[in-house]
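Researcher: Quick test of sequence recovery. Tokens follow.
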């Protein structure tokens, strides 16, 4: 219900919004620090506060550093930005939070993240940032308190190059004549395998970009792809979380994963050396026709030197896995981005952090950067229809959000037990891809690891 309420209000605010960020796949960012004169809203004590934001998204690290510099120039408030490397946010936060100069502003990925970090999260119920939410129910709450505020909505699915797809549809013997006919796994599989057989004529090296498994580069599979079978398991059982999973839809996961690795630019035995950047570059250069990723990927694709993908030809389709009734399934839409203020920071630093985020999401200067550089679809009432990003993949997210005939898949991976669980699954999927582990073992290990990690986080 929360998602439906958010979508309804978002559509009312902006019918053509967009977005360009996500779970990240780049190297560690740097930091940006400013001056030390009085800010626009000082803490009640009159003490000069400062901000240290630990950023989750490597692909927008430079933008956050630019924001920090501009804010410092305008207010005199010192702002430091540090960006965790891909897949290393929890580890980086654990290290940084223990330091004398700990982050004053950080993020959690949902209820499980709150359970891990609740001792460090300030109650935000009386803040301007919370009052700006279109739907206050989207926040992470505990009793009467508010401890995490969402600042972005995102979507992911199978990104495709419509120019290459149209070339296939025009071929003699094509399995379908339009992407509109691809609305289930069986059809997708038939099309993909036929495109593989015709890849030389299509001028591609593989239908899908590389299935990345270099260290820290497997989040598209151990998190985003696993979300689908877990989502449907929760739905079938009428729950929102489980201490133990049965992994009833593991064959559906295997369906699409096998399709990825067997119809790819890179042979399964070589995926351990591939990064997300490799995968996105392959798509950008026209070596592949499809790639699983989110709307944040447009920034990566468009930045590749020699990019051949036209803005009006980059589209989304849902991740089909063979579920009954998936003809009405949409893409996966949600967030794992909740802002938290470190409750152990000084009062001045807490206020400085709140003022900084208020400026980012409500000032004309901040909203311009959010819209045109970060490209966020935000859940705040401070953004008008004119302040909507034009990112082509973000437009696709909004299109799916507004299609009443389709049901979006929620981001249930927020409930995954731990990063250790996800890393273990990633390692198992790599072994499966290279032929050193069978699927039955992957399933058994996933079920066992879920239980162990849930028990560990409950202690």
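Model:
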């Amino acid at each position: 219900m929360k998602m439906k309420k958010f979508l309804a209000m978002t559509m009312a605010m902006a019918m053509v919004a967009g977005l360009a960020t996500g779970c990240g796949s780049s190297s560690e960012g740097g930091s940006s620090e400013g001056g030390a004169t009085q800010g626009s809203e000082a803490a009640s004590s009159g003490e000069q506060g400062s901000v240290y934001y630990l950023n989750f998204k490597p692909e927008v690290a430079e933008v956050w550093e630019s924001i920090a510099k501009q804010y410092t120039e305008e207010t005199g408030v010192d702002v430091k930005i540090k960006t965790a490397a891909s897949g290393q946010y929890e580890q980086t936060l654990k290290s940084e939070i223990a330091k004398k100069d700990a982050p004053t502003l950080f993020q959690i990925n949902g209820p499980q993240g709150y359970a891990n970090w609740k001792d460090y999260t300030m109650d935000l119920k009386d803040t301007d940032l919370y009052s700006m939410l279109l739907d206050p129910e989207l926040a992470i709450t505990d009793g009467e308190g508010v401890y995490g505020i969402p600042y972005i909505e995102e979507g992911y699915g199978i990104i495709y190059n419509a120019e290459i797809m149209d070339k296939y549809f025009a071929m003699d013997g094509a399995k379908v004549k339009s992407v509109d006919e691809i609305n289930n796994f069986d059809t997708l599989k038939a099309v993909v395998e036929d495109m593989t057989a015709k890849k030389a004529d299509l001028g591609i090296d593989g239908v899908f970009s590389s299935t990345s498994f270099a260290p820290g580069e497997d989040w598209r599979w151990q998190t985003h792809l696993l979300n689908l079978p877990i989502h449907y398991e929760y739905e079938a059982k009428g729950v929102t979380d489980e201490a133990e999973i049965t992994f009833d839809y593991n064959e559906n996961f295997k369906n699409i994963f096998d399709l990825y690795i067997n119809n790819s630019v890179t042979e399964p035995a070589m995926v351990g050396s591939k990064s997300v950047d490799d995968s996105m570059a392959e798509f950008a250069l026209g070596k592949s026709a499809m790639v699983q990723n989110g709307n944040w990927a447009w920034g990566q694709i468009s930045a590749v030197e020699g990019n051949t993908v036209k803005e009006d030809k980059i589209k989304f389709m849902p991740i089909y896995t063979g579920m009954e009734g998936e003809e009405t399934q949409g893409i996966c839409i949600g967030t794992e981005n909740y802002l938290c203020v470190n409750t152990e920071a000084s009062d001045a630093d807490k206020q400085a952090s709140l003022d900084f985020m208020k400026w980012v999401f409500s000032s004309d200067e901040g909203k311009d950067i959010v819209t045109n550089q970060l490209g966020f679809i935000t859940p705040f009432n401070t953004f008008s229809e004119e302040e909507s990003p034009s990112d082509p993949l973000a437009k696709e997210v909004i299109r799916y959000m507004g299609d009443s005939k389709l049901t979006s898949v929620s981001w249930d991976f927020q409930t995954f037990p731990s990063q250790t669980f996800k890393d273990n699954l990633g390692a198992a999927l790599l072994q499966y891809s290279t032929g050193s582990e069978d699927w039955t073992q992957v399933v058994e290990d996933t079920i066992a690891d879920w239980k162990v990690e849930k028990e560990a986080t409950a202690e």
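DSSP finds 18 helices and eleven strands in the chain.
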